[in-house]
């Protein structure tokens, strides 16, 4: 029986597609896309910005200026800078953070040497210890001391800082249950403008803070 050449090519393409899909489903270490959490000061879909202090640790940030329950931290949208500005007044511990609406598995990001990337501008340098954290369901988290890093930044200039995801994993982050991709906390005075936050594959070994 004679087979039409075009039909044969179509069948071959179809078979190749099936084989490729099968390989994609079993091959480890496949590339993972950038994960945008905050863009131009606005949380991406599935994420939310929050602030907190000892009276309430999770107050949602909206479009209007807002302060934490004890008044230790205030956040407002800066339309000109397209960023969220966070001002800590030093009267007590307070935190600014971004949370997923439901926890996510970051295993693929760890395999792909991803880094947490933050585009920020230092408005006022910290006068006490500052930590950046990733959380995996309270009280599960992992943190890094960024006090010296922030103090060394030039004021009122945009900088892109990156943190090797492996650092957080090594520090106890449950990589399969990440609910808070970024949290910044201090007891002191400090002001930051934060425009973009994302998790980017392949940057871990070149991150500002790395653990490889």
Descriptive notes:
The N and C termini lie far apart (61 Å). A hairpin with a 4-residue loop joins strand 6 (73-78) and strand 7. With 212 residues, the chain is of the alpha+beta class. It is built from four helices and 14 strands. Strands 1, 2, 5, 6, 7, 9, 12 and 14 form an eight-stranded antiparallel sheet that branches. It has a six-stranded antiparallel sheet with strand order 4-3-8-13-10-11. Helices cover 18% and strands 42% of the residues.
Give the class from helix and strand content and strand pairing: alpha+beta
Estimate the mean pLDDT confidence: 89
Shape by Cα distribution: globular
Helical proportion, percent range: 10-25%
**Count of DSSP strands:** 14
Task: Figure out the total of helices.
Answer: 4
Largest sheet: 8 strands, antiparallel
Pick out the low-confidence regions: 5-29
The SSE string, one letter per element, is HEEEEEEEEHEEEHEHEE
Strand content: 35-45%
Rg of Cα set: 21 Å
Q: What distance separates the N and C termini?
A: 61 Å
């Amino acid at each position: 029986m004679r087979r039409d050449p075009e039909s044969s090519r179509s069948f071959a393409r179809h078979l190749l597609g099936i084989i490729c899909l099968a390989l994609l489903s079993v091959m480890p270490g496949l590339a993972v896309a950038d994960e945008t959490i905050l863009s131009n000061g606005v949380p991406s879909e599935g994420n939310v910005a929050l602030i907190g202090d000892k009276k309430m640790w999770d107050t949602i940030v909206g479009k209007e200026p807002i302060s934490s329950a004890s008044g230790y931290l205030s956040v407002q949208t800066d339309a000109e800078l397209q960023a969220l500005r966070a001002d800590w007044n030093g009267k007590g511990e307070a935190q600014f953070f971004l949370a997923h609406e439901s926890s996510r598995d970051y295993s693929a990001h760890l395999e792909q040497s991803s880094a947490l990337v933050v585009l920020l501008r230092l408005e006022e340098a910290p006068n006490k210890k500052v930590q950046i954290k990733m959380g995996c369901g309270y009280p599960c988290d992992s943190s890094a001391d960024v006090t010296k890093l922030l103090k060394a930044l030039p004021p009122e200039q945009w900088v892109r800082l990156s943190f090797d995801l492996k650092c957080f994993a090594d520090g106890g982050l449950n990589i399969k249950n990440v609910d808070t991709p970024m949290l910044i906390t201090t007891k002191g005075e400090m002001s930051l403008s934060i425009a973009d936050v994302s998790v980017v594959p392949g940057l871990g070994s070149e991150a500002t803070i790395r653990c490889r």
